Amino acid sequence: MTSGASWPAPHTPCLADVLPAVLASLGRPDLASWGRSGSAALTLPRARRAVVALVDGLGAQQLAYRGGHAPFLRALTPAAPVVLSGFPSTTASSLASFGTGLSCGEHGLIGTLAPTSDGQRLFSHLSWEAGPEPSGYQPAPTLLARAHAAGVEVTTVSRPAFAGSGLTTAALAGGRFRAATTADERVEATVAAVRDNPAPSLTYLYLDEVDKAGHVHGPDSWQWGAAVEEADDTLRRVAQRLPAGTSLTVTADHGMVSAPLAQRFDLAEVPALREDVRLLGGDPRAAHVFCRPGAQEQVYRRWREVLGEQAQVLSGEEAVSAGWFGTVTPRVRPRIGDVVTAMTGLATVVDSASARPAFLALIGHHGSMSAEEMSVPVLHGSA
C-alpha cells in the first residue's frame, strides 16, 4: 500500500461491500443501496437464503500462503481478485464497516483504543468496558437491523459473551442472536437458523479462533494452521447441511503480520516518543497520538524523526485529507489523533507503562496498510 488514500476507492471492493452484495443476491437490491456511495459492489449469485461467515484474522495472503490447511475454502469461488478491509485493519473498525457498510470516518470506530468524549482517558472498542452508550456513539442503523426491519429474517450465531455487547450493538445489532461456543454448537445453530427461517433469510456466523492463534503464536505458527483447519472443517460441515438455494459467503476482517520484539518502539523506553503525549490510542500498527495542548507540532516532528522509515507519520489533518479513514464526519473527527501512524515493515508502537503484560507478549499484530493486513478473502459457494 502507499501513503495515499487507504480507504478503498470505488473501483476496489472492500469489506463494507460484502453485506450489501449478499442482500442484493437475496433479491433485495433496494437493501444493497445502503453500502458506500458509488461503490463497485461485489456481485454474488442469486439465492433464497444466505449464510455469511466471518473468520476473524483470516487474511487473504495468509490463506494463499497456507491454503493446505483449508481444503474446503480453497474449493470456493473468489468474489473478486482483491478485497480490502480498510484502514485501520483491525477488528473493531472492520466489523463496524462490515456491519454498517460505512467507512471508519463515518461509523467512528477508529482503531481499538479511542478517547472518551471528554478526552481524558481511553476505552476499548472490543471490551467496551466503561465505554459510552453504543447506539449513541455509533448511531447509524446496522445493515442487519435494516434488513430485518425490511422483512429479511436475520440471525447472528456467535459466542454468548457477544450478545448485546457494546461492539455488537454498535456494529452488528439486528435480528435474533443464537449463542454458540463449540464447533458443534456453531454448526447446529447455523443450520437451524437457516432451516427454521422462511426465505429470504440471512444468517451471520462469527468465528474467532484463527485471530486468537495468530495473536498469541503468530500467523506463521502451527497453532495458526490448526485453527484454520478447525474453521475450515466447521464451514464444510455447515455447507454440507444447508438446504438447496442457500449461499455461503466467507470473509474476514483483517490479516496479520508477525511483529518481532526487536522492532518494537516502546514509549516507556523512548523519551522522545513519550514526551508531550497525553494518550496513545489506536493499535500498535496504527497509533493515534493525542498530545498535550500546544505540543502537536513538536510531537509530530519527533515521531517522524524517531520512527523514520519504520512508519508513515501524518498529522491528524493530513491523514483525514489523504483519505486514510474515508469520509470523516464532524462527530468522528475528535476520535482521530493529533498524530497518526501507519507502521511499515514489521514495527509496532506500544506503551509498556500502561499496556497489560499479556498484550505486550503478543506476536501477531495488524492495523496498518500492508497487503498482509488489509487483504481479506470473499469466497462463495451454494447448496
- Provide the domain count: 2
CATH superfamily of the largest domain: Alkaline Phosphatase, subunit A
The share of residues in extended strands comes to 15-25%
Major β-sheet, in short? Answer: 7 strands, mixed
Strand order of the largest sheet: 2-17-8-1-7-5-6
Number of β-strand runs: 17
**Mean residue pLDDT:** 94
CATH class of the largest domain: Alpha Beta
CATH 2nd-level architecture of the largest domain: 3-Layer(aba) Sandwich
Structural account:
The structure is a single chain. This protein has helices spanning 18-25, 29-32, 60-65, 71-75, 91-100, 104-107, 134-137, 143-149, 166-171, 183-196, 209-217, 222-241, 271-274, 296-307, 316-321, 357-360, 371-374; strands spanning 49-55, 77-78, 113-115, 122-124, 153-158, 176-179, 201-207, 246-251, 257-258, 264-266, 277-283, 286-291, 311-315, 339-343, 348-350, 364-365, 378-382. It has 383 residues and is α/β, with parallel strands linked by helices. The chain has 2 domains: 15-256 and 370-382, Alkaline Phosphatase, subunit A (3-Layer(aba) Sandwich); 261-365, Gyrase A, domain 2. The strands form 5 sheets. Strands 2-17-8-1-7-5-6 form a 7-stranded mixed sheet, sandwiched between helices. β11 (277-283) and β12 form a beta hairpin. The chain is globular and about 60 Å long. The chain starts with 17 loop residues before the first helix and ends with a strand. The model has no long low-confidence stretch (mean pLDDT 94).
